[in-house]
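I hope you will forgive my troubling you with a question about protein structure. Here, with my thanks, is the record as I have it:
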Amino acid sequence: MSIWSQAKRLAVDTPADRNRYVDFLRAVSITFVIIGHWLITTAHYDAGTRTLNPMLALDIIPWTSWLTWVFQVMPIFFIVGGYSNAVSLESAARHKTHYAQWLTGRLHRLLTPLLLLVVVWAGLSFLLHVFGAAPDTVRFLSRTALVPTWFLAIYTMIVLLAPLTYSVWRRWGYASLVAYIALAVLVDVAFFHLGWTALGWSNYFWVWLAMHHLGFAWRDGRLGGPGALLAMSAVALLTLVALILLGPYPIAMAGSPGDAVSNTLPPKVTLIALGLFQFGLLMALEKPAQKLLAGVKAWTITVIVNTMIMTIYLWHMTVLLLVMGVAYLANGFGLTMEPGGSGWWIARPAWLLVMAVLLIPVALALSPLERIARPAHAATPPAWRLIAGAVFAGLGITLATLFGFDGAVMSLSNAGIIAVIGGAALCGISVRMGRNSR
């Protein structure tokens, strides 16, 4: 049976009470992230020295910083995650599923695809080291490939807290959302005006918990009409513009090349303003979008993307590195144009198409990891072990994205690898095509 036929069958069998717009936004936002990464990450081949110079478009084409306002869709990820976690928690409450059982299922879906990526790049880094690649080169390649994983480090922590934060939402409603936003604002004030830069890292929680809370509000239907949502969106956009023009924040919403301050590392309140702008606009469009998704074709496409969404997200930068590597071996074919020039921009659609074509077989080969459920007979690890495993895995992801792997057997970079694998093992997850260990 073809992929389309399988997806169409799933589409036709979709329960009537499923919010298809949630899946649609997840698919669209993933697509935006991939396109954004493929556009800003480029390289130039110097025929004279036969060297390949990787670079970011944000570094060499300053005006592209404004494009990040379109391609920075992480707030949508957390909003969709909040909605999905609320649905899952409601189901767990109905079936009297305890915390450890609920958390096991969520972590299995998050960490299983990630584990394979980390293991593969640990192996590739070792091989590159053995064959004489410079440690800096190996670290650059692995760090680039692991760029997508940073999101899972903080999202895993948000999932651990989801039962508590959902209870807070059910009791306090929008007051709890305002509290998260207020905390994020206070952290930024301390960051900029008191020099408490270390405290700024706590905004990984306050900013993304605020976005996650918007998903709770959506699930509970506690939103105004389209007019009120568009008004909120407009106010949020004006606030964002004011923060950039009058405040200490840079333009780029994804990294800030050449700037001492980043909107994302650590997160700033600008991301909350951007998220509120996106949320109001997207919620105002929900009803017409639902009508579109009621059609079999549109919904089938959405189903296909969602069945392999973690795979295409995690592996799209590896595909980009593969394309660059092949181009280098082919005497810089396709990479000799000066980035930012007219020819380079004209070639962007072809650049995106080539990588999309290569990503398809990768997604088809590896996406079964996302569809293999935990064995029904598998024992549920105790909650303390799941929490410890998730924290270790999150720490490992953080180390990997910050420092990469250098391939040396005796290296501090192995700490990230060990933490991810060890954390997954504590959660009962192995790398054998999603099968869980006891």
Remarks:
- The beta strands are 41-46, 51-56.
- The chain is about 70% helix and 5% strand.
- The first helix runs from residue 3 to 12.
- Residues 17-170+296-426 form one domain.
